[in-house]
Amino acid sequence: MSGIYIHIPFCKQACNYCDFHFSTSMKKKDEMVLALAKEIVIRKDEFQNDVVETIYFGGGTPSVLSTDEINSLINTVYDNYNVAENPEITLEANPDDLSTERIIELSKSPINRLSIGIQSFYEDDLKMMNRAHNSAEAINCLTEATKYFDNISLDLIYGIPGLTDEMWKKNIETALSFGIPHISSYALTVEPKTALRKLIDTGKITEPQDEVASNHFMILVDMLEKNDFIHYELSNFGKEGYFSKNNSAYWLGKKYLGIGPSAHSYDGEKRGWNIANNSLYLKSIQENKLPIETEILTISDRYNEYIMTGLRTIWGVSLERIEKEFGLEYLNYLKKQSHKFLNDELVFIENNILKPTAKGKFLTDGIASDLFYLNL
Question: What pLDDT, on the 0 to 100 scale, is given for residue 59?
Answer without folding.
Answer: 92
